[in-house]
Amino acid sequence: MNLTSKRLYLLFLSALLKGASVGPMIMLVIFFDSSVLVTAFVGTAVAFVCFSAAAMLATRREYLYHGASLACCMSILWWVQIASSIFGGSTTVFKFGLYFGLLIFVGYIVVDTQMITEKAHHGDMDYVQHSFTFFTDFASLFVQILVLNMFRKMKKGRKDRRN
């Protein structure tokens, strides 16, 4: 078994484990309203294609250096979540985390697309690593959009029940 085959198996294993970790949430969404799942998947696919295309059509290496800023923003989001769990969270903090996280993950799609394009331009054709990067970006964005859609649907359902 060569190195590429081993790396492909690890890619498949990571996809399996990601599916196993997101599976219970998807089952809950299907139980609640399956249209939310379809909307989240289509929204994720459209956002992924649009932002990847924008990164590929942009000036070479234009967004490549935003990776450090995105990592800093991810750190801020992490610290806000930790503080929220310690001191008690509110709906506002939850919504901030959802929308800010959505912005961060979309930014990572742009940066990673330009990073992979630049690596390919310099001869790095490591399709396993590039697939893993895109898969991670897609899965993170999907979960973020799914939670956001569920939150909005539950909020709308609560308003309808009151009336």
Automatic annotation (TrEMBL):
<feature type="transmembrane region" description="Helical">
    <location>
        <begin position="92"/>
        <end position="111"/>
    </location>
</feature>
<feature type="transmembrane region" description="Helical">
    <location>
        <begin position="37"/>
        <end position="57"/>
    </location>
</feature>
<dbReference type="Pfam" id="PF01027">
    <property type="entry name" value="Bax1-I"/>
</dbReference>
<keyword id="KW-0812">Transmembrane</keyword>
<feature type="transmembrane region" description="Helical">
    <location>
        <begin position="131"/>
        <end position="151"/>
    </location>
</feature>
<keyword id="KW-1133">Transmembrane helix</keyword>
<keyword id="KW-0472">Membrane</keyword>
<dbReference type="InterPro" id="IPR006214">
    <property type="entry name" value="Bax_inhibitor_1-related"/>
</dbReference>
<protein>
    <submittedName>
        <fullName>Bax inhibitor 1-related</fullName>
    </submittedName>
</protein>
<dbReference type="GO" id="GO:0016020">
    <property type="term" value="C:membrane"/>
</dbReference>
<comment type="similarity">
    <text>Belongs to the BI1 family.</text>
</comment>
<feature type="transmembrane region" description="Helical">
    <location>
        <begin position="63"/>
        <end position="80"/>
    </location>
</feature>
<feature type="transmembrane region" description="Helical">
    <location>
        <begin position="12"/>
        <end position="32"/>
    </location>
</feature>
